[in-house]
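Researcher: Can you fold this with flavin-adenine dinucleotide in place?
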Amino acid sequence: MNVIVCMKQTFDTEAKITLTDGKINEEGVQWIINPYDEYAIEEALKIKEATEGTVTVVTIGPARVEEAVRTALAMGADDAVIVDDPAAFGDEFTAAEVLAAVIRTRTYDVILAGNQAVDDGSSQVAVRLAQLLDVPHVSTITKLTFDGAVAVAERDAEGDTEVVEVKLPALFTAQQGLNEPRYPSLLGIRKASKKPVEHVTVAGIGLAENAIAKRVAVTETFIPAQKGAGRILTGDTPERVRELVRELRQTSKVI
Amino acid sequence: MDFDLSNEQSMIRDMVREFATAEIEPLAQEVDRTGRFPIETFRKMGKLGLLGLPIDEAYGGAGADTVSYALAVEEIGRACGSTGLSYAAHVSLGCGPLQAFGTVEQKETYLVPLARGEALGSFGLTEPSAGSDAGGTQTRAKRVDDAYFITGSKCYITNASYAKCVIVTAVTGEDSRGKKQIGAFIVPTDSDGFAILRTYEKMGLRGSDTTELAFDEVRIPLGNRLGSETEGFKQFLKTLDGGRISIGALSVGIARAAYEAALRYAKERVQFGHSLSKMQAIQFKLADMAMHLELARTAVLRAAWLKDQGRSFSKEAAMAKLFASETCVRTCDQAVQIHGGAGYVSDFPVERYFRDAKLMEIGEGTSEIQRLVIARQIGC
Ligand SMILES: Cc1cc2nc3c(=O)[nH]c(=O)nc-3n(C[C@H](O)[C@H](O)[C@H](O)COP(=O)(O)OP(=O)(O)OC[C@H]3O[C@@H](n4cnc5c(N)ncnc54)[C@H](O)[C@@H]3O)c2cc1C
Ligand SMILES: Cc1cc2nc3c(=O)[nH]c(=O)nc-3n(C[C@H](O)[C@H](O)[C@H](O)COP(=O)(O)OP(=O)(O)OC[C@H]3O[C@@H](n4cnc5c(N)ncnc54)[C@H](O)[C@@H]3O)c2cc1C
């Protein structure tokens, strides 16, 4: 089976986020593969090993993403496509359109992605992609098996497990618990630099820049205020409710 | 001049760092307390190809360079000094001589399983009467037809309990001026007459395996001689040159663990109304630690780079090992000091780092011997 993995390079989860002129500062930040995408890569490699298929990694991002791509190749992916054209850097809509244009021309049985990226946390891109490609999707899966051209996925449903069957080709997004991602082996690392990586532009995949321009405008970016000490309300219930409403109206101004 | 690591080097460092943090560091305290050798860690390292990191691909290794190897030793040593020593001894002392001096047949038989991680490598040079002065070697290899019979003893030998063969130096005869000639032999550990007399209790690096070996007329076929009868001396000098890079890297790793712990503690611990890190006396200690660490790492990587370029590196390796090991001991000492009473008790890891550090100034040539090597190199 041939598997395509959508991967995003994100900030290290331990990175300290700072702003410069209202923009997130990327200086000196450690970059990693989005942790949920690591589960997707691992699952893809397991499918490859069980079925003698191939694994292709697709990513959107600037030159620095090559490092994450090489790590995925070192883990065992076969080849990769990097869309490093700034015209492809937009919002979830843009990303899904770009990924769809890259993937549409390829043959695949399975598309795997993380269930969300830890930076923007939108959980939208992969699901939009499935819609654009007109393939079924199952999100936040914790187990994936195959029975011929049918996939059986278990998904995390708020503490319960839902078992879903879909016909291939299909898209799945990975949840923690799906597997234990491997470390790239030394030989894998050494081979990674020789594996094919294709760099493509928006025009090169047949998209018009203005047709995929982002639909969301970011009006402000800010760091959440430091969480202060909590306050426990006292008194009888009506008193506590009155006090809570007053706090919500006057102190935190949420209502 | 270019101080950047290549993509491959930084990927190897990152992979080993992640592996060491997740799989090695959590065992470090237990391994130190109990003196248990963490064999499961070596199985995992074998699977990842770490045990054959700088060994040729043709012999089961990953064919990476010495710079990558030094980076890997630093990361493993940062997580656990004991594991770092066992690893460095396996690669530099166990695999190193086979890779450098072995015949194709010897490499196929003995190097391949080491590079694949099926057994650990071990190197026996030190004897009760031959430590710094290998000229005092008394173990003898007597030639009878197409075999040698080895008799003698070795002390402080790392990894022998987990090795399928030990590379052993022994006196093969005397030259015309009466000077001892020394050869090196690959001794399978299941040979008749080979015995591990004991494993030592140690001050630090307690999770590494340090053994005393005895040889009683151990019969070794001619094909197990490494190089000629008289090349043993030259060979182990070369082996130790390479080994010094790894002990330098291990020193940097242990020192970094101590420095990071001290910096963290200094930021958290409040006395006299300030965190320790706001006190100039403590800041100066931390600044010195950071500086020495940076210089030590640079020296180690430069020696490794020279080796990779095929240039001579004896002087640089001795300097890097000497500076890094003394940095390591000083840094660990200061890390204990910054922790105060907490540094002296085993609730915190710095007392372990301090005990582990001391071997860095002794193994693979003491600090005094490094100074002798450097002095000779600068023309004294
Ligand atoms: C944990 C551990 C692991 C080891 N692993 C191995 C191993 O795998 N294989 C192996 O072969 N060996 C191994 N060794 C042995 C190690 O290499 C020796 O301990 C070291 O070389 C010092 O030799 P020595 O102990 O005989 O000390 P000595 O040579 O007796 O030295 C004692 C002191 O005298 C000083 N000294 C000696 N000669 C001079 C001189 N000419 N000028 C000035 N000062 C001098 C030394 O610097 C030292 O301070 C290991 C040792 C330890 C503790
Ligand atoms: C084995 C052992 C036995 C002990 N027995 C006893 C006992 O019987 N009774 C008892 O009461 N205590 C005992 N102690 C505690 C001991 O006296 C303290 O550990 C010691 O006074 C240091 O205090 P601390 O550990 O809190 O370190 P801290 O005071 O936190 O000091 C940490 C570091 O910061 C430095 N530092 C602190 N303040 C400053 C400053 N203003 N400027 C510059 N540097 C500064 C210190 O010198 C040290 O290097 C014992 C400790 C040990 C380890």
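Model: Folded with flavin-adenine dinucleotide in place. The first helix of chain A runs from residue 35 to 51.
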